[in-house]
Write a structure and sequence with these properties.
Elements lengths: L2 H9 L23 E7 L7 H14 L4 E7 L11 H4 L3 E2 L5 E2 L2 H9 L8 E3 H13 L10 H20 L3 E6 L9 H14 L4 E8 L12 H12 L6 E6 L5 H11 L6 E5 L7 H7 L2 H9 L7 H17 L5 E8 L10 H14 L1 E8 L9 H5 L4 E4 L8 H13 L4 E4 L1 H13 L6 E3 L8 E5 L2 H6 L7 E9 L4 H5 L5 E8 L2 E2 L4 H6 L3 E5 L6 E5 L8 E4 L14 H16 L14
Parallel strand pairs: 1-6, 1-7, 2-5, 2-6, 7-8, 8-9, 10-11, 10-12, 12-13, 13-21, 14-15
Antiparallel strand pairs: 3-4, 15-18, 16-17, 16-19, 19-20, 20-21
This protein binds glutamine (GLN).
């Protein structure tokens, strides 16, 4: 029996056996089949570990390999649901309802793959898992320690993902940088796992940063070297180094890094700024990183060349069109977090995807609606071609949003309401079309007498969610012969992801419908309104959804409600006298 087999057995040892190890193996785990790529930060965070990891994973997936990414966060929150988007970027909701970091969005978009709770963990999840096992008596009388138990829990999590996904390669992104207290046990777990899995099982990637101080005007590698040294101090020798930089990293600088880290030049990659992250997979491929990784993991024989050729043709089509549009359309987004674009990352991405497919650049204009009122709304929206009211929580700026929606409805300006934007469209319509002047949401006014948007605990009980947020992918029945039906290619049932607590009170639905509002998407069995629209004779494109369609837009499969909005915005621009073309002839009214 090999040492490693012994380690594995000891992990599942009987209560009486004394052991210093804790390495449980999940059922279905195939040692030697599952390979690992660990992506670690060195000098600073926020440089694009997720982008590197997902781009490399995409290259592997395109070759016909099965890949499974996981992001391991250093914070103690169990999920990202309670994080302020202003500080952390948007909360990205997965199909199974897991609320995660926005990086998971990057993985889903680049891989065109739906992820779930197994693809995301936090310190909080790991530690509460250990504490629960301790209370359940799972550690057989031992004192429970960071090593081996907490570290063992991390290894278990990674192997469970491997076993569940059957993946050829697991891409593990560790949040933060080496040296952060909060990710130290992750790094130890990665090191141990690499040892246990043996030769040719793992690739460690160090993502570093090449400084180029303006006063010197040249690239300096010292900070990068120190960061990588720090990684070596915890027992991890990187196999591949990704150098983030503003400009392409000079050969001499790469040579220096190579020399100081024992990593051959061909594995020191310049990951400099580019106009679109979607170009990165191809530049990695040109640098030969994909083949290096296949060699290091000894999996050249798993490549399906035909599949790769096909995938590359499709991807190239998309990437070649980026930045080539001759025309701009301006979409106003009424956002509370107007100063931080990360809070709306998926909306921006969905706009980009559609722009590439439709040959336009989507120019987002951010509107702080706390300053908008009936007196200035026209001026603010005069030269925009479409409006999005995105998701949000709390009363701030809601009256300004209602003014924007009223303007869009009355001026036939394309409108897309997302979650809160759907609710606000109902309130606007109830007030200004149905004459229910005090209509509101009980979220904004708990004593509201006409709560057209309300919490319906009875309804939530049916779905088994108590008073909590309704989260994750849910089915929506589409009403035939509607705008929604046309957008979704006449599908009668679709699925979108949700994240909300409030909804339309069904009592008001008949009145809203009598005045022209169409609920074209509903829950299959309960009276939950999920898509609304105005009939074509009232408005060319006025649609909203209680869901978050922005979360599922992919480069090669742009989301239909966004495609509809951008198409309508192009038409609105044509029809409107105040247009903005890149090619000139803008005519002032
Ligand atoms: N605040 C609203 C609700 O809880 C909308 C949520 C959202 O836009 N994600 O229902």
């Amino acid at each position: 029996m090999s040492n490693l087999d012994l380690l594995a057995r000891i992990g599942q040892s009987s209560p009486t056996e004394e052991t210093e190890f804790y390495t449980p193996m999940p059922p279905g785990y195939r040692k030697g089949h599952h390979k690992y790529v660990f992506v670690l930060g060195t000098v600073m965070s926020g440089l694009g570990k997720g982008i590197f990891s997902s781009s490399l994973a995409k290259l592997m997936k395109d070759k016909g390999l099965t890949v499974a990414p996981i992001k391991m966060e250093g914070y103690l929150n169990i999920d990202s649901g309670t994080l302020n988007p202003y500080r952390h970027g948007e909360v990205f909701v997965l199909d199974d309802g897991m609320e995660t970091d926005m990086d998971l969005g990057t993985y889903e978009r680049l891989l065109d793959q739906d992820l779930g709770a197994a693809n995301f963990t936090t310190n909080g999840q790991i530690l509460s898992g250990v504490l629960k096992k301790e209370r359940d008596g799972a550690y057989l009388g031992r004192d429970v320690q960071v090593i081996p138990h907490v570290v063992g829990e991390v290894k278990l999590k990674l192997r469970e993902l491997a076993a569940k996904s059957g993946a050829d390669v697991i891409f593990v992104e560790v949040g933060g940088t080496v040296g952060d207290y909060e990710n130290s046990f992750y790094l130890e777990a990665c090191r141990q796992l690499a040892y246990e899995e043996g030769e040719k099982s793992t690739v460690f990637v160090a993502l570093t940063y090449i400084l180029e101080p303006g006063t010197l005007g040249e690239q300096k590698s010292k900070a990068a070297q120190l960061g990588i040294k720090r990684l070596m101090e915890v027992g991890v020798m990187p196999h591949l180094i990704a150098c983030r930089a503003t400009n392409p990293v000079k050969e001499k600088v790469r040579e220096k890094i190579s020399m100081y880290t024992n990593v051959p030049m061909k594995r020191v990659f310049s990951m400099h700024d580019v106009d679109s992250i979607y170009r990165i997979p191809e530049s990695m491929r040109e640098a030969g990183l994909d083949r290096e990784v296949l060699t290091m993991l000894d999996i050249h024989d798993r490549v399906n060349q035909g599949k790769e050729d096909q995938a590359r043709i499709k991807w190239r089509w998309f990437v070649d069109r980026i930045g080539k549009a001759k025309r701009d359309v301006t979409i106003a987004v009424t956002g509370k977090y107007t100063s931080l674009r990360d809070a709306y990352a998926s909306i921006i991405k969905a706009g980009e995807h559609c722009g590439v497919h439709l040959g336009v650049t989507v120019d987002f204009r951010w509107l702080d609606t706390t300053e908008i009122h009936a007196g200035n709304v026209e001026k603010r929206l005069a030269d925009v071609h479409g409006i999005i009211v995105p998701g949000g929580f709390g009363v701030r700026g809601t009256e300004g949003k209602i003014e924007c929606i009223r303007y869009a409805r009355e001026h036939r300006m394309p409108y897309l309401g997302l979650c809160l934007g759907f609710q606000m469209a109902v309130i606007e319509f109830a007030r200004n079309v149905c004459g229910i002047t005090s209509a509101n949401s009980s979220e904004f006014d708990p004593r509201c007498t006409e709560a057209v948007i309300d919490i319906l605990p009875e309804q939530k009980k049916i779905e088994g969610l108590g008073g909590n947020m309704r989260l994750g992918g849910k089915d929506i029945l589409i009403k035939p012969n509607t705008l929604a039906a046309r957008l979704f290619d006449e599908a009668t049932s679709i699925n979108m992801r949700f994240r909300h607590r409030y909804e339309v009170d069904p009592q008001y639905v008949p009145t809203l419908e009598e005045h022209g509002m169409i609920f074209s998407g509903k829950h299959p069995t309960h009276p939950i309104m999920q898509i609304l629209e105005l009939p074509q004779d009232m408005h060319p494109y006025f649609i909203g959804t209680q869901a978050h369609p922005e979360l599922t837009s992919r480069p090669l499969r742009p989301q239909p409600m966004f495609m509809g909005l951008i198409k309508a915005a192009i038409e609105h621009q044509h029809a409107s006298p105040k247009t903005h073309h890149k090619q000139g002839h803008a005519v002032e009214a």
